[in-house]
Amino acid sequence: MFKAAFRPASRAALILVALPLALAPRARADELPEIVVTADRIEEPIGQTGASVTIIPAAEVERLGSKGLADVLRGVAGLDVDESGGVGAVTEVRLRGSNPGETLVLIDGVRIGNPASTDGSVDFGNLSAVDIERIEVLRGPQSALYGSDAMGGVINIITRKGGKTPHRSVTVEAGSYGTISTRASMSGGDDVWTYSLGVNALHADGFPRYGYRIDRPLTIGDGVTPLPPPPADDPTDKGGASGRFSYRLSQDVTIDAGFSLFGNAQRFDNPYAMIASDVFSHYNVSQTTIADGFVRATADSFGGLLRSQLTVFSNVSTSNIWETEGCYDASYNAFNCRSGYQGARTGAEYQGDLKLGAFGGLTLGARTETETASASQSPNPDDGSFTPIRARQTTNSVFAEHRLTLGDRLDLTLGGRIDAIEGGQTFETWRATAAYRIDETGTKLRASVGTGDKAATLYQRFSPYGDPTLAPEQSFGFDAGIDQKLFNGRVTASATVFDTRYRDLIDFADVPSCTPAQINTVGGCYYNVGRAETKGVEVSADAIMVPDAWRARASYTYLDARDLETDTQLLQRPRNKGSLSLIYDGIAKLELEPRLTLVGSRLDYGTTSNVTLAPYAKLDFLANYKFNDSFALFGRVENVTDARYEEVYNYGTAGRSYYAGMTYSW
Fold first, then answer.
1. Cis peptide before 379 (omega within 30 of 0)
2. Among 135, 208, 242, 252, which is least packed, fewest CB within 10 Å?
3. Confidence of residue 176 (pLDDT cuts 50, 70, 90)
């Protein structure tokens, strides 16, 4: 199995990793501070976790996140991003070849995503990078720690906490395609309480999302009529706000609270319309809002041996879509309409972390979560062609994990979880990890194995073509890797092999289990059938090539993702993907970075059959000049070579683009 995974990866992986290794001199450099992560539900040094995790720090988020989080995530090994036509458009994220709904997304440990959506996935086109401290990307099945949806992994977005020293910052940026964005943040506090607040707003005129810079002839939904001339733009307005507050009641008790707000209004195109004028009609508009919040009480007791956390959380997502020919009456006549989807999630979770001395540590917890979903349509013909959705389900969970360190070198974890859906399925998951540190050589060997589950969404269970008895999707996966420091810590390299198998995947089709009403009305129903396997290699490296002058960063992913029912490649998963950055900061106050992204060919959904999207290379150039501690200018050129490429079939991507801005802090 591992031979098959390594064979296609050899050349590109060696080039991307060996380049910074070969160029790195042997002189000693300053050690980087130890990174703290929450991969095991508690804060711990990254060197102690056996999980495969990538940390994106605040500085990287600020440099790349002016248009949204999608650009921040693109260079992460094992992670794919597909954007359907520019800023604000539907953006799917996959970890290790999993489906978008099989990646759990958290903000400050609280699950987000619209329970009313078809697969429960998070549309990253709606999210803004607002006052983020770091992003942790945890790969592999993690349901034993985090429950449903964490089959492919977890993306945990951690917002910034305030400190005693007041800080203010304002950033303004403008550039191609009529883009202008602003970001502002403020934080402060004292010995008793702290706060941090951030806001973000963006407007982009954009470009026609469908067909932009596509050379092939395109047609409307009938497959015959040529696509009409596109409009000049498809504008987007999006923004967000976040806040973190902390109040210390006593030496042992702290109250934390946080919120996040996101909004996105965009015009889109409807290539499936049968009337040419409807494809680029200004009627095609969507509006989405996401509101999320939590309150968390933390108490230390028994002399610090037990830390207890009680979190109460809630979020609501609302999406309204006005679309030409978007609805059908009982006679299958199409008409323009508004479709509305609202999902909400409320609940509470307790987590206790107990120190056991020589016997390690134990985490115990329980959680209850209620999800609701509703769907509406207007106008709504009184002919039975539309059935409003009103659905609700409560999931109760318990979980535990034991952590143990042997001989100051070997860190082990073993955990399990039970999730029970009231009136539905109950599923059990588990995970084990190991990390062995050889400090003398700067080596860490790590491995993890576990299972994942994804409960059927409310839409899949209770829509007119749903099935309330659907079983949860399930996965079993493992990975093994090595993290190696070389040249007195000047180079850090990492390599991981992984394999994950999926079963009981939920699909939609006309099958014998469908009712006549489902077949006659919508052509099928949801059912459990799919099996898939994803396996591959992830490689990354960071190097200080010349101290105080040149640094390099590289990543490469080989992915073999197959549908085991049909023995074919899964769609929208490139076999090969890599990135390479060179950072120059040899001139005081100046930083320059060329960044190359390479994506191999992959299959995608075509008009009448599957198609192969061509590989592409995208070169970006970033520059930053810091005049002093308060004022900085920055700029970037995206797609320097003006490459034409597609992330989603027939949906355009930006040509050569220029952006510049400034930041003032005090």
1. yes
2. 252
3. very high
Residues 305-328: tens digit of each pLDDT: 999 999 999 999 999 999 999 999
Contacts of 588 (CB under 8 A, 6+ apart): none
> Distance between CA 322 and CA 317 in Å, rounded?
17
Quote the tokens at residue 378. 């207007």
Q: What is the pLDDT of residues 553-593, one digit of tens each?
A: 999 999 999 999 999 999 999 999 999 999 999 999 999 99
CATH code at position 433: 2.40.170.20
- Count of domains observed in the chain: 1
Q: Token pair of 306, please?
A: 């037990």
**Which H or E element spans position 2?**
helix 2-6
Q: Is the pLDDT of residue 24 over 80?
A: no
Phi, then psi, of 328 in degrees rounded to 5: -135, 140
Give the pTM: 0.92
- What is the distance between the alpha carbons of residues 498 and 535, in angstroms, rounded to a whole number? 5
d(CA 533, CA 548): 44
Residues forming beta bridges with residue 369, ordered by sequence position: 347, 395
Q: Residue 164 in 3-state DSSP?
A: coil
Contact (CB, 8 A) for 188 and 164: yes
Domain coverage including residue 87? 2-665
